[in-house]
Amino acid sequence: MESVDCNLCGSRKQRVVYAKPDALYFREEWFTIVECLECGLGFVNPRPDATEISRFYPPEYYTYDDLDADYHQRRYDLEAELIASHVKNGGRRLLDIGCANGHFARRMQEFGWQVEGVEVSANSQPIDDFKIYRQEFPEIPVNEARYDVITAWAVLEHVHDPMAHFRKVGVTLKPGGIFVFLVTNFESISSRALFQEDVPRHLYFFTEHTVREYLSRVGMRLIRTDHNTDLSSMPPMGWLRYYLYRAAGKKLQWTDLPPTRMEYFARQNLNKGLASTARYVISNPLAAIDRLLMPLFEQLQILNRNHGIVTYIAVKGID
């Protein structure tokens, strides 16, 4: 484990926001999320260092594309449409940072793009049908403006040095090229108060303000911000409990959360089914109401531009 200063402004002034365990794989290991008091960047501190982090990404972490292939195919098409609507220079050379198993890049190949990818995990699937860099993006051997588009879909929250990634984008993107990236939103209650961040795989938590600061420091400007569920979602599970606690003058903690439906089934040794679900609702009525009304609350988040997931598009300034 290592302790770090703010990656954006270098400040050592921080406040604790909350603590939670690794909810996926190592529930006995707890992590603290802090907020920089100078610029508002959120991050895990202390955190697993670069040599420790790989164990939090077992092979099963990379099977998500196989769980709902049709959904992910639709998502790749939406991402392609988003990119096409903002490419102005006619170039079709793309680099996908954190390309995982390579499915998005392959889809862009089908649309006629020349693609390359970056993926550091040894647990992702082998890729041999397009150029792949098996090293951290800031270290790839490209030091000129080569790409018309660089993408990072749910990647920057995972890296140990976001500033180095933004700087490398500034170097490798052509003038007038676009950088498209999706990250979680630290201004949402899903991220800041409802423990929905995938800690410790998520190491950094961004707001629009901190995103603009990163971009301005590498000669880029933000041209579009999308708050919606088109590409991904961070459901505000627990929102009703959060507001009830706040009304009572209390702060919601991870340990205050009820079990999820599947956790309840496992603890009670129940099989999936209507009867088991009924038992869960009777035992956890507040959670059931929360879940029932959650889609409406999520739409309100989108309207208020504080949804848990945000897609940003930035352009590199033309000298």
Blueprint of the fold:
Blueprint: E1 14-21, E2 30-36, E3 42-44, H1 64-67, H2 69-84, E4 93-97, H3 103-110, E5 114-118, E6 131-133, E7 147-153, H4 162-172, E8 173-184, H5 189-192, E9 204-205, H6 208-216, E10 220-227, H7 239-247, H8 261-267, H9 274-283, H10 285-303, E11 309-316
Parallel strand pairs: 4-5, 4-7, 5-6, 7-8
Antiparallel strand pairs: 1-2, 2-3, 3-9, 8-11, 10-11
Helix pairs in contact: 2-3, 9-10
Low-confidence stretches: none
* Structural category: alpha/beta
Q: Counting H and I runs of at least 4 residues, what is the number of helices?
A: 10
**CATH fold-level name of the largest domain:** Rossmann fold
Radius of gyration: 20 Å
CATH class of the largest domain: Alpha Beta
Secondary-structure element pattern, one letter each: EEEHHEHEEEHEHEHEHHHHE
Number of strands: 11
Tell me what the CATH architecture of the largest domain is: 3-Layer(aba) Sandwich
Measured distance between first and last alpha carbons = 42 Å
Shape: globular
- Largest sheet report: 7 strands, mixed
Helical amount among residues, as a percent range?
Answer: 25-40%
Number of domains: 2
